[in-house]
Amino acid sequence: MYQVDAFADRLFSGNPAAVCLLDQWLDDETMQRIAAENNLAETAFVKKAQDHFEIRWFTPAVEVDLCGHATLAAAYVLFECLGNPEPEISFISVRSGMLKVSKLKDMLFLDFPADTIRKTDSVHQIEKCIGTKPSEVFKGKTDFIAVLENESEVQNLVPDYYEISKLEARGLIVTAAGDKVDFVSRFFAPQCGIDEDPVTGSAHTSLIPLWSEKLGKKEMMARQLSKRGGTIYCSENGDRCLIGGKAQLYLSGEIFIP
Question: Which residues are within 8 A (CB) of 179 and not within 5 positions of it... i.e. 6 or more apart?
Fold first, then answer.
């Protein structure tokens, strides 16, 4: 097992993820227990399969459909720790299909399907969750997205995790135009066992098409305003999007399973 800080320019920033390399798949209960024992936002389980890798992601509480930062961490391990010689790695996920990660110098870029979002009339419901009225609310495949007026509002809001946990969604993304970057965000998912996620790659599959349209730009830089913080390099490409960042290795070791 490896633990990697993803979307991190330096150690102890970004979003930590565990990466477990398997010869054969473990049973679901064991993988869930490992993820709970790790007590990180995500644990990725990876197995080699011919010309690609299979991947699954678990929070301490549930298996999820897609996780960006743990996929970035898994690619970092394969490139930097195991010496994968190819410039691109393909992951197959039963829940999310083909996912590719490419390496360019010290940067890794996730090639993920872009989310399809629609505006909703859930403004009052979301206001109860974050204590301030959003200017717009959207719903993607898995998350609600609340748009606020400015970066300061996003930075200073106090979430009500109980109200957020009642949303029929994986979680809630709160976002605004940035002061020094194109846009900023925070992500809350208490219903998945994560009150606030440090940096959320998968949330940017929703944020990239949203802000690309609002700003009229295809290339953008974003910042997630969690306590650890993280920088995300974003590119809109039709029904796909590129989500880029750096990663840092924290530890490697072995798990002993009875």
Answer: 150, 151
pTM: 0.89
Give pLDDT tens digits for 69-109: 999 999 999 999 999 999 999 999 998 889 999 999 999 99
Same-domain status, 103 and 131: no
Asked about 42 being catalytic, the answer comes back as yes
Beta bridge partners of 64: 57
Q: What pLDDT sits at residue 237?
A: 94
Instruction: Clarify whether residues 63 and 147 are in a common domain.
Output: no
Question: Which of 29, 42, 127, 254 is the catalytic position?
Answer: 42
Domain check: are 167 and 98 in the same one? Answer: no
Say which amino acid occupies 179.
D
* Tally of domains in the chain: 2
- Quick one: 135 and 217 in the same domain? yes
